[in-house]
# Entry
Amino acid sequence: METKFIDLRSDTVTKPTKRMREAMMSADVGDDVYGEDPTVNKLEKVSANLLGKESAIFVCSGTMGNQIAVKCHTDIGDEVILEASSHIYNFEMGMMSAFSGTLPRVIEGKNGFFDEEQLVKAIRPDIYYLSKTKLLCLENSHNSAGGRVLSVEKSASLCKVAKDNGLKCHLDGARIFNSAIAQKTTAKEIAKPYDSVMFCISKGLSAPIGSLLVGSKEFIAKARRVRKMLGGGMRQAGVIAICGLIAFEEILPTLEDDHKKAKLLALRASKNKNFKLNLESVETNIFMIKVRNGNSANYYVNRLKEIGILVSLNSSDTMRVVTHKDISFEDAEKACKIFETIN
Ligand code: TLP
# Structure
């Protein structure tokens, strides 16, 4: 018999809802490379409005959206400033160098974020024989930091420093709606100081595929050319784009539940003497559990798997737990009991 796991590895494991699957059957479609897919066009328009930008482009993945942005904002040999544990730097296969020929200048942050002083120091002086610092990339919520949130004020202040120094600003907002909910603000407010923002519909929003990149009309026109270079020009993509439109109506209003489930799980895991957790750091749907009894995190990843719970290995002593809509409160309660007692 197949084991039903409580899958807390990522919010990317979410399955499309019944409403999404039904809507896929009847979605109005056309050839998107000709700009003729009405559903894709609608998703792009709604997404741009939601984020308060002029234009948007539907792309295959978060990685593709981020890398198109890096390419559009830079030239070969330029420097890009990123936080040391950011997704763009660590998990996108070196594409910022392989595809855009840029040099990452990483800053060690605290809880995923650095401050204005560190940023200023990382910007190269404008001297002809030095490479140019062209772009600041931030991530909000910050995945590897355990779903930490960057406040609207801090975000604006960092972007101001960048802009005063002639840099463009890109936000990896894969989970921008989680950040907005945690701060009781809107994605539009978070997106304001950025020239471009990428967000995913295939994570907590539960669509099967896709991300959106938003920005000015001019930027998105350039992004369309770069997406085509990457082979990302899709055809009747309305069958997947429709899921994004439904996600905004059906899933977005429930996203806060994922944060509640994460808080419940973290609280119970914190009662286990084998684990170390900072409960105040649980702000969204992701949190980290540090192991402290001499066993490796891998030991617990495997132990949990034996009992029917999947979590991911973050480092030798840390596991990552991610909640999402396919984890019910009942599942969360089952996992809570195990997190509290496992040894
Ligand atoms: N993150 C995935 C893994 O790659 C780690 C996950 O399970 O969390 N930005 C951020 C902040 C992300 O967390 C991810 C995916 C991406 C970009 C890339 O998105 P995809 O996987 O659609 O290329």
The mean pLDDT is 97. The two ends are 27 Å apart (CA to CA).
